[in-house]
């Protein structure tokens, strides 16, 4: 098998594993505050190999997340594209930052990510999500905090995976 194709398959395998973790391994009570592993994995591959994983992968996996969660089709895709774009735009600044600073930046990106879902695009959740609702604000804060705290462990794990299995073309 071609090395480039094998590397691409290994990258997408990690993305599908994170999609599986996102959709099946958490109880219903934790679904509101659990980290989005697909987005964290996309951010990692976007930082590590920006020429291999980009906007199209973000759109594809965003649509997969929309289909699994039953949300408005394309909403996760657009959010994944925007966050992927920000990570690619500030790739050099973000990659050399220490882990705590990367987690801090991701904390604010995930707060924005969660607040976009408070916008009721099809007017169905009139009672559930509101910007002034203190449980929603607390859940948004916890979601961003858990995502930021998950980032260093996921980064180190995926870095080991990349160095062990994904080979660079020479």
Topology, element by element:
Layout (H helix, E strand, L loop, with lengths): L2 H22 L12 H12 L6 H15 L5 H15 L1 H5 L3 H18 L17 H32 L5
Helix pairs in contact: 1-2, 2-4, 2-7, 3-4, 6-7
Describe this structure in words.
The protein is mainly alpha-helical and 170 residues long. It has helices at residues 3-24, 37-48, 55-69, 75-89, 91-95, 99-116, 134-165. It has one domain (3-165). The mean pLDDT is 87.
Mean pLDDT across the residues is 87
Would you count the extended β strands for me?
0
**How much strand content do the residues show?**
under 5%
Q: So how many helices?
A: 7
- Write down the oligomeric state: single chain
Helix content: over 70%
Could you name the ranges where pLDDT drops below 50 across 5 or more consecutive residues? none
Task: Kindly give the count of domains.
Answer: 1
Biggest sheet statistics: none
Give a brief rundown of this model:
This protein has 170 residues and is mainly alpha-helical. It contains seven helices and no strands.
Key traits:
170 residues, mainly alpha, 7 helices, 70% helix, globular
